[in-house]
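Fill in residues.
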């Protein structure tokens, strides 16, 4: 939200800025926007610490600005979903201020208080319990100490959060992205988590996916889906497909993020195939995977996977042609790279700053702690959109461990709009192709396979069959198309050449993706 487009010159992205770029988004070919939190917040964690669920943070504008964005987006057939944090509030929220004011306050039980903590650890590092001197008890926070977990075992809390959803649905949002939704504490039970001696880390067993959470998810889904054409996306903190599948489908969330695919840490086409294949085998027919390779919580995939724009175009093609709901993270469509810093004071992300502090406490040097902080920091992908080629403050060209890509200053919208071979132009072609070919939107897999560094699949619907091939090797591959088609074929799109008519065989260049369609009649 604060990184996309500044509309009033204060250096912070806002609703006016997004509204001014709706035509850009429409021309790009997107169908929906996911807005990260825009509510009043101290911004300890990029707005995921909400201090008021019923208003707009002044940095982003006003409720009128928000309503105008919704109206203008809908006029362009662009839907808008809002990030909503149901798991915790900011410690600055009036609810928590009332809760901590007295052990006898009616809102005391809206949060989780204990005389003695168990061994649960924060997912940001360190203990998950914070001592409160005002009332001499500990409160629970799964993330930063300023992000205080709500007690969903209290029916008043549940009703309060349903009221919040109703407010924004009636403001016109088209659904929600529900942050860390499987972390809801719905039971007054707090057994210690086990410890993995081999990895020297706690295993988060009892502080997420609690018994009863799926019933709450069903209640949320039933409530939201009373409103026509609403969409629910869940951030479920798990890499276990058997856990993920229980959160989506009929009567549940529409989709959940699959981090097994989206968070692959390094270039590994075989792992990508294995993860997507496992998802296809695990999910039921009514369930739809999600496809993404970047987000506000991870490094950008063009930096993570290497290979420059050729490889980035391959993964863009994969995301927009494989089966699933694709999520394009802003800036990926122009090839923006990761940001790193040589000064901890320039780091905004709480996760990176906590990692820096913990490293110093463990005896690491300042340089070592900064390396760890940059590794953990989510600032990498949160820098402002490069509309005119501006480079974000914080780069250092002197530190040998910080690398600025030589072409970074060439990465910007203004330049790429004029270049038919740019990353931006390629995304537009891909999205147009997806609109034109129903098999790439709703088609099932007829074939999905991997062979020696190549991934290929055939998607079909009643009207067409399309073959998509990815050569992730450094060698030219030759493929006999007669294995897949009995009629003539047409090469629709390539990451390395203009579409041409294909014969019975096709040579696939290193780091190339091809989309081939069966020609009927």
């Amino acid at each position: 939200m604060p990184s996309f487009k500044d509309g009033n010159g204060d250096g912070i992205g806002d609703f006016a800025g997004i509204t001014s770029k709706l035509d850009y988004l429409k021309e790009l070919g997107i169908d929906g926007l996911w807005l990260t939190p825009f509510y009043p917040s101290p911004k300890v964690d990029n707005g995921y610490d909400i201090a008021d669920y019923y208003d707009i943070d002044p940095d982003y504008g006003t409720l009128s600005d928000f309503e105008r964005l919704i109206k203008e987006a809908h006029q362009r057939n662009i839907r808008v979903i809002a990030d909503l944090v149901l798991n915790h509030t900011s410690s600055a929220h009036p609810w928590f201020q009332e809760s901590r004011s007295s052990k006898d306050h009616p809102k005391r039980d809206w949060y989780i208080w204990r005389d003695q903590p168990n061994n649960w650890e924060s997912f940001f590092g360190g203990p998950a319990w914070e001592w409160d001197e005002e009332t001499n008890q500990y409160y629970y926070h799964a993330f930063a100490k300023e992000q205080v977990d709500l007690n969903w075992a209290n029916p008043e809390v549940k009703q309060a959060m349903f009221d919040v959803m109703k407010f924004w649905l009636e403001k016109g949002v088209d659904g929600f992205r529900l942050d860390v939704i499987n972390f809801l504490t719905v039971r007054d039970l707090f057994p210690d988590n086990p410890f993995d001696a081999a990895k020297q880390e706690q295993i988060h067993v009892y502080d997420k996916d609690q018994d009863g959470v799926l019933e709450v998810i069903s209640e949320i889904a039933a409530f939201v889906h009373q409103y026509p054409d609403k969409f629910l996306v869940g951030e479920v903190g798990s890499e276990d497909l058997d856990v993920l599948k229980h959160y989506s489908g009929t009567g549940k969330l529409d989709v959940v993020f699959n981090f097994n695919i989206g968070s692959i840490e390094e270039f590994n086409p075989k792992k990508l195939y294995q993860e997507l294949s496992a998802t296809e085998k695990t999910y039921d027919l009514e369930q739809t995977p999600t496809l993404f390779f970047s987000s506000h919580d991870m490094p950008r995939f063009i930096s993570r996977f290497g290979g420059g724009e050729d490889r980035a175009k391959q993964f863009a093609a994969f995301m927009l042609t494989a089966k699933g709901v694709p999520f394009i993270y802003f800036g990926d469509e122009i090839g923006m790279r990761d940001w790193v810093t040589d000064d901890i004071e320039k780091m905004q992300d709480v996760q990176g700053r906590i990692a820096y502090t913990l490293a110093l406490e463990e005896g690491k040097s300042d340089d070592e702690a900064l390396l760890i902080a940059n590794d953990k920091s989510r600032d990498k992908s949160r820098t402002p959109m490069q509309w005119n080629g501006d480079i974000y403050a914080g780069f250092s060209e002197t530190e040998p461990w910080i690398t600025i890509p030589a072409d970074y200053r060439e990465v910007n919208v203004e330049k790429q709009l004029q270049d038919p071979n740019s990353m931006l132009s390629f995304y537009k072609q891909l999205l147009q192709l997806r609109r034109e070919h129903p098999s790439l939107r709703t088609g099932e897999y007829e074939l999905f396979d991997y062979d020696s560094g190549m991934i290929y699949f055939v998607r079909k619907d009643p009207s067409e069959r399309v073959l998509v091939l990815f050569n992730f090797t450094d060698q030219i591959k030759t493929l006999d198309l007669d294995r897949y088609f009995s009629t003539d074929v047409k090469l629709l799109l390539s990451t390395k050449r203009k579409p041409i008519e294909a014969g019975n065989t096709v040579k696939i260049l290193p780091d190339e993706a091809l989309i081939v369609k069966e020609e009927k009649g």
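The first helix runs from residue 15 to 20.
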